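Homework help board

Subject: predicted structure for assignment chain

Our instructor gave us this sequence and asked us to write out the predicted structure in token form, then describe one feature. I got the tokens but I'm not sure how to describe them. Can anyone check?
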Amino acid sequence: MSQMTDRTIVIVGGGTAGWMAAAALARFLPPGSNIRLIESDAIGTIGVGEATIPQIRLFNAGLGIDEDDFIRETQGTFKLGIEFVDWSGAGSRYIHAFGTIGRGLGLVPFHHYWLRHRAEGGASSLWDYAPSAQAAAGNRFARDLGRPELPSGIAWAFQFDAGLYAAFLRRYAEARGVVRTEGQVVDVSLHGESGAIDSVTLDSGKQVRGDLFLDCSGFRGLLIEQALQAGYDDWSHLLPCDRALAVPSANAGPLTPYTRATAREAGWQWRIPLQHRTGNGLVYCSAFLDDDKAASLLLANLDGAPLADPRPLRFVTGKRRRAWVKNCVAIGLAAGFMEPLESTSIHLIQSAVARLLQLMPGAHIAEADIAEYNRQTDREWLAVRDFLVLHYHANGRDEPFWRGCREMTIPDSLRHRMELFRANGRLFREGDELFAEVGWLQVLLGQGVDPAGHDPLADGLAPNELDEFLMLARRHAAQVAGRMPAHEDFIAAHCAATPRNMVAA
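My token output:
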């Protein structure tokens, strides 16, 4: 492969995956790099990810995108966490809040002091000490709280229209030299000796050659699977939902600064509030719920009037066995699919692009770089998979679907985490895996996995010292939330969508 500015990188497919890749390559590759993106207006995009996790702020900041402009252009709102309703039985509710919960002391994480206090008769909730959880409960949001000497503990992500985000990034990428070609790929030509992709042919007959190809073609895996046969690891035995319905509805009530996931009889329903509409969907297992009943269930549980008919989606949860094969890297749905229970869809695009930039080939594609990319990808996807399986396995519902999830054999890696936590509340993060200890903590406790003990080092505080320590942490969380304006008021003051864009999508 020639020098960076002499090579051609071809992205097949647009949507969120294609344009995130294009924007990042245009920003970080040397000026003059040849980046082409092929997409067809005739092919719709899935757009499953309208809710995100805080890491997307790093991606946008790396591109130099102003946060208020981004929110305004994508009809977005802010997100402090994900509320889980009815997962441990009717009436149960908890939030996986972003940011910190209390503060550790010495070598001991904060939650061990809370566990000790609870064992000694304390009645406070873990989330009393989480600033983001308190703000979400009060429907509040702010970025700058004016106390730089005392970290707020707040972290946030976004809820936005994925189609508008793709269009936003398209404008960004094209302004920096990315060339878009309209058309559908109808043929893929492989090199006779190496087996690498040599070119793709469009429905117009035009042939597009490249040195490195990014497959952003969605579930089809047009390059990575149909041409290069990467293989697919099917995880439906662990994550048995195989269908989804999505429908927008009119906004009703205030714009909540969190996403909601409500357990239903054979799956779960999402609710994502945007400035111009609310995104809703039902993820379900077709072996326990037929399509017509699923549609009725979804439509019966909307906050506002539906703005369209439910749009169906079928999938098999899993990932490509190799995300990088020869000169082709699969990104987004072409690389695999995990349902948006913890809003990881867009993040997995982001991390794939970042990983590619770290291992961007030089004059030649090295097998060692391919192997490392695939190793890191596998590790990340497996850790996210385990986190999602936890929600299903540790449930407190009585329907046949949920009983089956409780009884299923789970991966040893997840079983070990659960057993370690049940014993003494211990949590350890493996390297740079996506979800940190505070995320595992909230979901484990929220799903009813309760520790029998706590770290004995937490017994080092005298009872009055423990009371004061927890009181200060609780006061801090309440004060941080109390200084925030209403979520809607913050948006109105900083990043309200312009009237010309305020249309239901």
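Reply (TA_rk): Your tokens look well-formed. For the description, you could write something like this. DSSP finds 14 helices and 21 strands in the chain. That's the kind of observation they're looking for.
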